Amino acid sequence: YRPETRWLNPTLAEMSPARATPDTLLVIGWLVFGWLIMTLGGLLFLLIDFARGSALLRPFKVAWLLNTLCFGPLGLLAYWLSDRRPAQTGLMSGRRRALGPVMYSIIGPLTGVVLGLYLYGTYRPNSQFGPTYLLILLAATFLLSWLLLQAPLRAWAGGERYWIALRRSALATAFTTILATIVLLATGQFFSEWWFGDIPPASPYFMIYTISGSLIGAALLYPFQLWLGRRGQSVWPAQPSGRAETEAAVSPEVTPALHG
Q1: Where does residue 113 rank: exposed (0-12), middle (13-18), buried (19+ CB within 10 A)?
Q2: Environment class of residue 22 by beta-carbon count within 10 Å: exposed (0-12), middle (13-18) or buried (19+)?
Q3: Torsion of CA 57, 63, 67, 68, to 10 degrees
Q4: 77 with 96: CB under 8 angstroms?
C-alpha cells in the first residue's frame, strides 16, 4: 500500500500482487489522470474550434464531441486528420475519412457494455454472466446504437426521413454493434484473467479495459467502414467538399467574365 495510490485502492485487494505492484498502480493512476486531463483539453479544443467558424455541419460537430469524450486524445487526433479542414475532403483519401465513422460506431457498444456491466454488478453481483444476459446486452446495445446514434446522425446530416435512415442503417449497425460488443467483453475477460481480477465498473481500472477494448474494436471495424465508404453506403454521410462547392458555384457562363 502507498498513500499515493489511495484513490485507486477500491480494487487493490482483488489484484494479483505478482503483476500489480504498488509501483505499477502508481503509474496506472497517473496514466488515467493524464488521460482524463487530455480528454477535457480535447473537448475544450473542439468547442473553441467549432466556435471560430468551423465549416462542419452541426451533426458532425456533435459526433466528434462524442468521439473525443469516449476516445480522449485519440478522438481529437482523428478529428485533426479527417474533418479538421472539411474543404480538403474532396482531395483526402478514404482511409482518413473512415476514422470518424469507425470511432462513432464504437460509442453505442461502449455505452451499452459499461451500463450493462454496471447494472449486472449492482443487481446480480453473485450470479454468473450467462448467455441469456449476453443476448439481452447485445439487443439493448444494438437498439441504443441504431435508434439513438446511427440513424439520427444519418437522418440529420443527410436530410433523410428518420424511418428511412433506420432502414438504411440497420444492417451495418447490427454488424458493427455485435462485433464491437463481443470484442469489448472479450477484452474485459482477458484483463480479468491475466491481471486485474474482477473489475468493478466504478474502479479506475475499468477505464483502462474499456479504452483498450474500444481501440481493438475500432481496429477490427476499420476495414468494414472503409469498404462502406468506398461503396457510398456509410452511415456517416460524406461531408461536402469545399472544392466541389466552389466549382459548382462558378458556372461556365460566369467563368469567361471572370477572366476577361
Answers
A1: buried
A2: middle
A3: 50
A4: no
Q: Are 209 and 188 in contact (CB under 8 A)?
A: yes
CA 100 – CA 110 distance, rounded (Å): 16
User: Position 215: which residue type?
Assistant: L
Amino acid at 55: A
Q: How many residues does the chain have?
A: 260
Residue 249 in grid coordinates: 458555384
By the 8 A CB rule, do 38 and 72 touch? yes
Which 3 state secondary structure label does DSSP give 232? coil
The three cell numbers locating residue 181: 460488443
Task: Identify the three-state secondary structure at position 186.
Answer: helix
CB 153 within 8 Å of CB 234: no
What pLDDT, in 10s, does the model give residues 153-186? 888 888 889 999 999 889 989 999 989 988 888 8
pLDDT digits (tens, 9 = 90+) for 185-239: 888 777 666 655 556 665 666 777 788 888 888 899 999 888 888 887 776 655 5
pTM of the model: 0.74
